[in-house]
């Protein structure tokens, strides 16, 4: 047997992977499909300044057009830059308006952009996560214009100015309390799906200027590097706890540097989160104060693939979502070829990981054909975001009373509402479709609509009669058992009725046994054929009855709901 040095393994793997075809890797049902929507200087949005009623509407329309493209592409997560640099895109009691909205720091755009964005995202089945820039707080000129709403005025003790730029000092205990209050305000005021921390680290090459005084006051003889990492972790812990105390279903995520530390597969070449900027992000996953990470792996080749695997292997059962530097496709940035990004996306999916695109404009502008490829090949149908089963595994009740009306140009569906009474919040709905009588909700291509707010759906792409299944999903991402339709392509009458713990079957011949299966096809009960079968011991849910004929063929009889 030929032995290969471990240091050569990533090089060999990369060579083989890059030589492979760019054929589609099968999609999974659960897959984070995220995009960073940058508001700093209006890089992605807004381009129009809201200085009049007409321009305000144009600004809104710009966002709607972007979100329509996300929906068309079957994305599911929008990371919207909300705290930009010590300034906000919503009416905050803590910090002033960011100038991206009107061109002037502190000026009210005449509406609430965050509320508008949340509503428009939810209409399209998109999660909205508030992207919060944490430690950097903006240039001195902007803070002067923000006046009394500037953090440098309201909390001067936690702010440090380096050259012409303000930062929060992680070494001051007041910083974690301030950031926790910022997150608590967003969580309390808005129906957000997540809060996403950015720049939750020390600034490179400026750490000494930032916390020299704090270390003398609070260091207490600790090793400087460990003290700094503990400071950043304390900020994360405080923000996480503040968010979860208000709405435990709000996801807490972050965008750490793409390389955590050197790995045994490949060196970080001196640039990593742990040593250079004191960011101990993998420990946050281990401690349980982070629901997912979106590492910014904006690299190619051996600076990408080994580090993606390292994040997966140290994710402690929580999603690791590689952030891709798709901006490098642009000729002025890096002039990557499309295949560079395609391989990275395929590799991530081969590991069961989603991806996040940095940044929006380079996706929606179809740079090097990326949008078209994703729409045609990579994201052909919707996907669900992974559930936070570490918070709770409890799923909502199944919907009931599904009605399907077949039209000449599709089908209309409606069903009875479900709510999450335990957490006093709403659920959303997923719609599945198949030509099979029992719609398998574990087959990704059967999912046709996700995160619907209303208990109704019009399937305009149904070119024939289908069977449908509806599930409810709570805010933690846990999905109910499916409610299955009882009519479909053949408009068959079911041979099965359920009443008071009994399954009643229409008399048939040449049947020797009856199987009671769950909707994944697993047999729960097998009994000799009878027209009355006792199923009182079964849990509530949907079940399929299957006949076993005298010549041992299996024949579906129908579905019942208990």
Would you kindly provide a written description of the structure presented here, covering whatever features stand out?
Strand 23 and strand 24 form a beta hairpin. By secondary structure, this protein is α/β, with parallel strands linked by helices. It starts with 8 loop residues before the first helix and ends with a strand. Helix 6 (173-189) packs parallel to helix 8 (224-246). Mean pLDDT is 93; it is low at 1-8. It contains 14 helices and 27 strands. The longest helix is centred in the middle third of the chain and has 23 residues, at 224-246. An 8-stranded parallel beta sheet has the order 9-8-7-3-2-1-11-10. Strands 17-16-19-20 form a 4-stranded antiparallel beta sheet, with no helix packed on it.
Descriptive terms for the model:
562 residues, 8-stranded parallel beta sheet, 4-stranded antiparallel beta sheet, 14 helices, 27 strands, elongated
Summarize the topology:
Blueprint: H1 9-19, E1 33-37, H2 53-72, E2 77-83, H3 113-123, E3 127-133, E4 136-139, H4 140-146, H5 151-154, E5 159-162, E6 165-168, H6 173-189, E7 194-198, H7 207-218, H8 224-246, E8 251-254, H9 273-276, H10 281-287, E9 292-293, H11 305-313, E10 323-325, H12 338-350, E11 355-358, H13 360-364, H14 370-378, E12 400-407, E13 410-416, E14 419-420, E15 425-426, E16 428-434, E17 447-452, E18 456-459, E19 467-473, E20 483-484, E21 496-499, E22 502-505, E23 511-517, E24 523-528, E25 532-534, E26 542-549, E27 554-561
Helix pairs in contact: 2-3, 6-8
């Amino acid at each position: 047997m030929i032995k290969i040095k471990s240091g050569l393994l990533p090089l060999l793997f990369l060579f083989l992977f890059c030589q492979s075809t760019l054929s589609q890797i099968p999609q999974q049902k659960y897959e984070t499909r995220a995009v960073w929507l940058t508001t700093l200087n209006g890089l992605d949005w807004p381009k129009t300044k809201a200085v009049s009623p007409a321009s305000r509407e144009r600004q809104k329309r710009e966002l709607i057009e972007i979100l329509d493209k996300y929906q068309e592409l079957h994305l599911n997560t929008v990371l919207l830059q909300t705290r930009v640099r010590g300034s906000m895109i919503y009416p905050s009691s803590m910090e002033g308006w960011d100038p991206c909205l009107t061109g002037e720091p502190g000026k009210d755009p005449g509406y609430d952009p965050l509320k508008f964005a949340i509503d428009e995202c939810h209409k399209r089945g998109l999660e909205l996560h508030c992207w919060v820039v944490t430690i950097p707080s903006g240039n001195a000129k902007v803070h002067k214009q923000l006046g009394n709403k500037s953090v440098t005025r309201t909390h001067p003790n936690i702010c440090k100015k380096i050259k012409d730029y303000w930062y929060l000092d992680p070494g001051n205990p007041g910083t974690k309390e301030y950031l926790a209050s910022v997150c608590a305000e967003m969580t309390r005021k808005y129906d957000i799906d997540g809060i996403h921390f950015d720049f939750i680290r020390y600034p490179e090459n400026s750490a000494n200027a930032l916390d020299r005084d704090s270390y003398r006051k609070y260091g207490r003889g600790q090793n400087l590097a460990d003290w700094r990492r503990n400071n950043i972790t304390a900020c994360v812990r405080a923000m996480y706890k503040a968010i979860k105390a208000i709405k435990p279903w709000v996801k807490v995520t972050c965008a750490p540097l793409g390389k955590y530390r050197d790995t045994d597969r490949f060196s970080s070449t001196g640039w990593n989160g742990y040593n250079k900027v004191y960011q101990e992000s993998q420990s946050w996953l281990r401690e349980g104060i982070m629901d997912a990470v979106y590492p910014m792996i904006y690299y190619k080749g051996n600076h990408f693939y080994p580090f993606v695997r390292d994040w997966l292997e140290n994710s402690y059962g929580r999603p690791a979502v590689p952030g891709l530097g798709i901006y490098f496709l642009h000729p002025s940035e890096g002039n990557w070829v499309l295949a560079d990004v395609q391989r990275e996306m395929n590799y991530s999916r081969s590991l069961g990981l989603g991806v996040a695109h940095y940044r929006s404009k380079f996706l929606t502008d179809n740079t090097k054909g990326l949008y078209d490829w994703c729409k045609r090949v990579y994201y052909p149908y919707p996907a669900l975001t992974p559930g936070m089963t570490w918070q709770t595994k409890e799923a909502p009740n199944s919907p009931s009373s599904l009605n399907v009306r077949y039209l000449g140009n599709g089908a209309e569906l409606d069903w009875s509402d479900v709510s999450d009474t335990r957490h006093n919040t709403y659920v959303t709905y997923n719609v599945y479709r198949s030509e099979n009588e029992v719609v398998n909700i574990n087959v990704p291509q059967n999912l046709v609509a996700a995160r619907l707010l209303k208990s109704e759906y019009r399937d305009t792409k149904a070119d024939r009669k289908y069977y449908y299944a509806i599930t409810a999903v709570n805010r933690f991402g846990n999905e109910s058992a499916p409610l299955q339709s009882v009519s479909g392509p053949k408009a068959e009458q079911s041979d099965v009725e359920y009443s008071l713990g009994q399954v009643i079957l229409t008399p048939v011949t040449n049947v020797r046994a009856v199987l009671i299966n769950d909707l994944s096809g697993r047999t729960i009960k097998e009994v000799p054929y009878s027209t009355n079968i006792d199923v009182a011991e079964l849990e509530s849910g949907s079940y399929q009855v299957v006949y076993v004929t005298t010549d041992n063929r299996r024949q579906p009889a129908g579905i019942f709901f208990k």
